[in-house]
């Protein structure tokens, strides 16, 4: 059975009038295509039928991606000439001002078996899109 959790977003970035923010936790594959608009915003271009995004019941085409869960490593150890990344840290990676490829790279750091947190903004009109 599929479960997702939505929760309020607490961010210093003000929500534009006519817009709302939400977060969802789903597992990879995410089941959606993301794209970049002319302003550099990343948004949901398509939901795949029966995919995790569609099954969440929360994500809609046109929703803007605000932030994603990502993994960074804060140290490297050398074992016989082999560098091994250590100190895994889960972070909130904000998408504003980031290149599309950078956001996709951040998404790719998240391990598939774990639920990934994605934060979105949905607007009634073009004000915050």
TrEMBL record:
Domain PDZ: 30-99
Protein name (record): PDZ domain-containing protein
Organism: Ostreococcus tauri (Marine green alga)
